[in-house]
Every structure is written in C-alpha cells, then in structure tokens.
Design a protein that fits this description.
The chain is of the alpha+beta class and 116 residues long. The protein has 3 helices and 6 strands. The protein has one domain. A hairpin with a 5-residue loop joins strand 2 and strand 3. It starts with a helix and ends with a strand. The structure holds zinc ion (2 copies). This is RPA-interacting protein C-terminal domain-containing protein.
Length: 116
C-alpha cells in the first residue's frame, strides 16, 4: 500500500522542512504517528513499521523509524556534500510509476539522494 508509505514520507518531509511541525507530528520519543488513524505511533515490526490501533503496516527498509534515525541519515548524505553550499530539501519522490522514496536534494549541486 504505497499510499500510506507516501503519506508517512510526506509527514516526515514536513517535520524536517518546518521544525515547529516536529512536536505535533511525532510522539515524545521520536516515533512518527500513524498516517491513517493519526493517534498512535508507528512501532517497529517484521516488515517495517506498524500501528497497534488500526493495524496498518507500512513496509520500509528501516524498522526503527524515528526522528533521530532520519536525522542521522540526513547527516550522512549531507557529509557527502561537504564541499557544497549548505542547504537542501527533504521531499517525497515517486519513481517508476508507484515507487515512493524519501529523498533529499542538495540545493547547491542539485543531486538527489535517497534516504528511504
Ligand atoms: Zn493507525
Ligand atoms: Zn551537493
């Protein structure tokens, strides 16, 4: 169900684009809220992350999907652009029809990096 994956990634994009969204869109321990029921946090499960309330499962490569983890991924891709001027944008990118990725684009060299 790539629609929920997309909504989750959009949510993550918002959090990293506008710091004030951070507090309202995530639970206190940094887990993101379920994009379907909007009340429970997404906890790690076998295939990705899972909502214990509405039973939604979103397949992601990372099971421990938290603000800290995404921040760590961002720091890693940014370090590859240490010679670029600082700045960039986290966004949701759809490729090959319905493949949804969380990406970061360097505002200096315009290179697209896939985070998730
Ligand atoms: Zn839910
Ligand atoms: Zn760059």
């Amino acid at each position: 169900m790539s629609v929920w994956r997309k909504r989750l990634f959009e949510q993550i994009g918002d959090v990293f684009q506008e710091p004030q969204v951070k507090r309202t869109r995530t639970a206190h321990d940094g887990y993101f809220l379920c994009p379907k029921c909007d009340t429970h946090q997404l906890i790690p499960c076998q295939n990705g992350v899972h909502c214990s309330s509405c039973k939604l499962t979103i397949e992601v490569e990372c099971r421990d999907l938290t603000i800290d983890f995404i921040q760590h991924m961002l720091d890693m891709v940014r370090s590859d652009h240490s010679t670029c001027k600082p700045g960039g944008r986290v966004a949701v990118t759809t490729m090959a029809g319905d493949m949804v990725f969380l990406t970061w684009t360097c505002s200096d060299c315009q290179q697209l990096e896939i985070l998730l």
